[in-house]
């Protein structure tokens, strides 16, 4: 009888163990089970690199795994919104900076991250702002910035005895010499229209409008969008037109890259995000980058764009685990991994990590001694119709086609924005 009682007691203890374990872990339902978080992104080229980064996190938190599920860049915004509206969005996802992600927060799709450990210690207020509401409430962890400049074939420059131009007139003079030697000066083309907005016009614009300080003059109504600075920026696009590839309107982004890689073109206005692509192609020539010059030697500015933040789906079932990942993103370890696994994507951590990639380091070094600003349209000009991005893009393309003058393009920008953007309605007063 005694043995039977002991046996029954053992059975009772065994049956109670799941309940005991659940209370011990503080997780009534999951009780020690591994959790898989999904992560959305527009970076389809980074699957291998992101896995390595996420594996580093999982070594610290073995019960949390990250599944990276990217979407092609042109479709990302629409796909993410569809997922959010349908309740199928990832737990974590990349956030565009400024207005696009801010709208998602206002609609309740993003978790408020106020008080997230490490956020305010790791990042400046300025770097948090692109992923914060107008009252300063953060809804995203700053992740990566990208830089803009001009890729160039070092071998061709040496062959033609060309030096790095320090002003825009010198750049056009250099382009003329390159064309006379039988090369295409700039590989850029408008077959993919977004490239004219983002890696041509908004690449050169900071040096013509005066960087952040100049941009704020327009956003506060102190300058009109058709003043001499804006007209000069559009004129720079006109200056480039004779030095683009023949039939450029039919060439897409990839075609432009190949013209540069095949050494048919000596320069390419581009962004730091393409470093890995160029390196993967292993070209048999030396290449590097230089800063897009301004009208004079004094006009030293770089488009250094706050590109990606990381947000938390407000409907995620695993918010506690996701917040642990977001907290880890604020560490120098995470910043160093992102900076070196993804050359050309620069962490904006206060404690800047050392970069091992020479091309990424060359791009980042362009910031020294220059004013930095984001792409012109992003902070304030995307919220109405017609939006500033489309106006800059479409009018620049019309300039390349010879259908608009620089002054007409600037006037069209002012007229379009004045339809909804208050500072443009009463500018110059």
Mean pLDDT: 92
Fraction in beta strands: 5-15%
Described by strand count, sense and barrel closure, the largest sheet is: 9 strands, mixed
Helical segment tally? 19
Low-confidence runs of at least 5 consecutive residues = 1-31
Description:
With 429 residues, the protein is an alpha/beta fold. The protein contains 19 helices and nine strands. The chain folds into two domains: 21-143 and 307-354, 3-Layer(aba) Sandwich (D-Maltodextrin-Binding Protein, domain 2), CATH 3.40.190; 146-305 and 364-425, Periplasmic binding protein-like II (D-Maltodextrin-Binding Protein, domain 2). Strands 1, 2, 3, 4, 5, 6, 7, 8 and 9 form a nine-stranded mixed β-sheet that branches.
Brief digest:
It contains 19 helices and 9 strands.
Key attributes of the depicted protein:
429 residues; D-Maltodextrin-Binding Protein, domain 2; single chain; 2 domains; 19 helices; 9 strands; alpha/beta; disordered N terminus; nine-stranded mixed beta sheet; globular
Helix-strand blueprint:
Layout: H1 2-25, E1 35-41, H2 47-60, E2 64-70, H3 73-86, E3 92-95, H4 99-106, H5 119-122, H6 125-128, E4 141-153, H7 154-159, H8 168-180, E5 184-186, H9 194-209, H10 211-219, H11 228-240, H12 253-261, E6 265-271, H13 275-280, E7 287-290, E8 301-312, H14 319-329, H15 332-341, H16 358-365, E9 371-373, H17 388-400, H18 406-417, H19 422-425
């Amino acid at each position: 009888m005694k043995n039977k009682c002991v046996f029954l007691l053992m059975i009772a203890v065994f049956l109670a163990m799941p309940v005991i374990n659940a209370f011990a872990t503080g997780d009534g339902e999951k009780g020690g089970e591994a959790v898989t978080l999904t992560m959305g992104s527009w970076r389809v080229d980074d699957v291998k690199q992101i896995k390595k980064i996420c594996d580093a996190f999982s070594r610290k938190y073995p019960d949390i795994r990250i599944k990276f599920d990217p979407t092609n860049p042109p479709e990302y915004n629409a796909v993410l919104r569809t997922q959010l509206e349908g309740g199928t969005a990832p737990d974590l996802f990349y956030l565009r900076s400024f207005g696009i992600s801010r709208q998602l927060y206002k609609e309740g799709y993003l978790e408020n991250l106020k008080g997230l450990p490490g956020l305010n210690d790791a990042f400046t207020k300025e770097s948090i702002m692109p992923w914060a509401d107008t009252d300063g409430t953060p809804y995203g962890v700053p992740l990566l910035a990208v830089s803009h400049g001009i890729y160039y074939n070092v071998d061709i420059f040496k062959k033609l005895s060309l030096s790095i131009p320090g002003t825009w007139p010198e750049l056009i003079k250099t382009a003329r010499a390159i064309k006379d030697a039988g090369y295409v000066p700039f590989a850029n083309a408008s077959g993919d229209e977004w490239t004219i907005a983002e890696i041509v016009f908004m690449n050169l614009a900071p040096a013509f409008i005066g960087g952040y300080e100049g941009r704020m003059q327009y956003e506060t109504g102190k300058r009109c969008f058709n003043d001499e600075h804006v007209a000069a920026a559009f004129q720079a696009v006109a200056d480039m037109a004779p030095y683009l590839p023949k039939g450029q309107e039919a060439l897409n982004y990839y075609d432009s890259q190949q013209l540069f890689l095949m050494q048919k073109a000596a320069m390419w206005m581009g962004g730091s995000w393409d470093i890995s692509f160029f390196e993967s192609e292993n070209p048999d020539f030396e290449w590097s980058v230089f800063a897009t010059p301004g009208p004079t030697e004094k006009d030293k500015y770089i488009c250094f764009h706050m590109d990606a933040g990381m947000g938390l789906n407000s409907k995620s079932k695993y918010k506690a685990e996701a917040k642990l990942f977001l907290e880890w993103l604020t560490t120098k370890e995470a910043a160093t991994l992102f900076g070196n696994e993804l050359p050309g994507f620069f962490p904006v951590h206060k404690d800047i990590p050392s970069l091992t990639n020479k091309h990424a380091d060359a791009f980042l070094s362009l910031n020294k001694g220059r004013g930095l600003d984001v792409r012109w349209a992003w902070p304030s000009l995307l919220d109405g119709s017609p939006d500033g991005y489309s106006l800059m893009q479409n009018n620049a393309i019309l300039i390349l086609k010879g259908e608009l003058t620089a002054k007409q393009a600037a006037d069209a920008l002012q007229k379009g924005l004045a339809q909804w953007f208050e500072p443009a309605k009463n500018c110059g007063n």
